[in-house]
Amino acid sequence: MSYLDQISSPTLLIDEKITRANLQRMADKAKRHGKKLVPHWKTAQSREIGRWAQEYGISEVTASSIKLAEYLCGQGWKNIHIAFPFNIREISRLNRLAESQNLSVQIVNTSTAQALANQLAQAVGFFIEIDAGYGRTGVPISDFETIDEILKIAKTSPNLHFKGFYLHPGHTYYGVDKSKIHEESREALHLLKSKYRQSYPELVTRIGDTPGCAVMEEFGDVDELGPGNFVFFDLMQVELGSCAKEDVSVCLAVPVVDISLERKEILVHGGGVHLAKDVLVNDDGSKNFGEVVLLNENGWIIPSHRSFLKSISQEHGVIKASNELLANVKVGDLLGILPVHSCMTADCMGEYLSLDGKIIDHAEGCH
Amino acid sequence: MSYLDQISSPTLLIDEKITRANLQRMADKAKRHGKKLVPHWKTAQSREIGRWAQEYGISEVTASSIKLAEYLCGQGWKNIHIAFPFNIREISRLNRLAESQNLSVQIVNTSTAQALANQLAQAVGFFIEIDAGYGRTGVPISDFETIDEILKIAKTSPNLHFKGFYLHPGHTYYGVDKSKIHEESREALHLLKSKYRQSYPELVTRIGDTPGCAVMEEFGDVDELGPGNFVFFDLMQVELGSCAKEDVSVCLAVPVVDISLERKEILVHGGGVHLAKDVLVNDDGSKNFGEVVLLNENGWIIPSHRSFLKSISQEHGVIKASNELLANVKVGDLLGILPVHSCMTADCMGEYLSLDGKIIDHAEGCH
């Protein structure tokens, strides 16, 4: 029996072979450059896929929230880093979790450092997150006063251990000069390392973004790479040049519920609650919420004539279909949709179906 | 103890009083016009909130998927209508559910009607969905041939019972002339009723969109109103003129994790996985992913100086803050965010916290 026979409703498919190839390629690259790969698990959010990663020598992961860190606890990770500016309302949750799991958190201001210094009951590492131009979060690269103050506060605590500097150059997602951004980021981290390694000889620097880590070949003296999305990739990464469409390892299987030959549209059950609402813009200015692939017993193939989701609402998806697709599709068929943003799609769906018909876990499906 | 003391992480709050007032107002309006209110439960997706609705004489609901219909089954609903073009891969699920629950489905083409006629093992009602200009789904209003063919197929089945015509004029969301759209929609349904009531004297017509049902006072001979979003409302509905900000009955409580006085920004834990990524555009062209309200022990108040989410990523939210908010906020505080699209936010969060500290269920939280 094919996995396709199990599907009656929108279902997120995962191709294990492509996923493992993505993991292996990034693990090899990190090794080649002498860097430690600590993937951001906000994308996969899965224990099972974590076991696949461990087979490629990956021994630490990053979580996007304490909730995800709790979910990943007890899975053999040497360390789970929570890469979100620490939320001091969660200190007691952190203390509980740190009883059984080696953890680190991220600090971006002195008041959070002080609250942790006062209230930590367990040993926890921390990175200082640096902003070198992205502008979302982090201590500005030139604000040594805040960095020094955080380090000074940490020294007053027996439980708060400085690990190093973390930088997420998320502006590589916005189409500007990726290699320039990466150079600036590396230099920022190099500067910090030079300045602080005398006092903290063990300190490491970590840089984490898929567009950079996938494409760049120069990492300078950065110690650790922390990309996330590369595990699955998606259409946004294809557009950014991080990967080929063939590297995208998840796709949403959607049932066809209506076809309009006149409008060249196919209505599917697959909308914002399945894919999330991330969107790309086609060359002609129209919107693209995902692209059609053709499902078969072995997975999916990318058709030579492009069809894409031109609009989605809560449950509905409307495909702008090629003539070739229209000629071959009927109500009740399944189509595959490559997602624009796989992290968000996986979070919406809360589980995966493998191509051999097994359910693969995701944190959101396990309440 | 205040409900606020229970909150350490992003939490969707519900104000029961406002929600009940929204339910009562729409129930009163339907009654005043002699129409039956059958709310679309894709917004609330809750059994508990369903019990509140039943107190206002609401006895039938609409679901957006068979999954939601399954969740709402056994809650005393006289009928659950699944208002999505029926997906024939789910016929056996439908047959199982129909053993214990009075159901109706939606049909938009003959092949689906034929599959149902062939395979239904239980009595199920159906509406024919009509497209009178929205262009997303439904039989085009002038396509009597398809309507006749569907009705002819249904007659061959002892289990497939025609209930009437359903119309969702979703183009009222796109800022054009709402009252003109409603007039055209009413006329379309009137025309169909006139044409088919001789053969089907019991047939009803239903129209369902919150912008129309909230504002219009003229419903002609439409029999049933099916809005959904009005139960909670949201900023999109405020913008459309369906309600005031004070009528929005859910808000996301988010912890403050960093403050930049220089940029006048507040970083909160609250991103796309909590709010979804629906967005409004401010007058100056900037984006608005939600607006700040101030939480207190009794719920929230709308501040006189506006602050809003200018950007969100998976877990991060960046608030463009008023001077008044900046002067009063500190790291570790909670702020409230009125959502742009409450249906999507509720679906992301999977449960609600009431202002007296009780968890209220949502279908997505109950796997």
From TrEMBL, chains A, B:
The keyword Lyase applies. Transmembrane segments: none annotated. InterPro entries: Ala_racemase_N (IPR001608), D-amino_acid_metab_enzyme (IPR051466), D-ser_dehydrat-like_dom (IPR026956), D-ser_dehydrat-like_sf (IPR042208), PLP-binding_barrel (IPR029066). Residues 252-353 form the D-serine dehydratase-like domain. Signal peptide: none annotated. The keyword Repeat does not apply. Gene3D superfamilies: Alanine racemase, D-serine dehydratase-like domain. Pfam families: Ala_racemase_N, D-ser_dehydrat. Residues 14-233 form the Alanine racemase N-terminal domain. One of its GO terms (biological process) is D-serine catabolic process. It comes from Algoriphagus aquaeductus. This is D-serine deaminase-like pyridoxal phosphate-dependent protein. Belongs to the DSD1 family. Keywords: Lyase. One of its GO terms (molecular function) is D-serine ammonia-lyase activity.
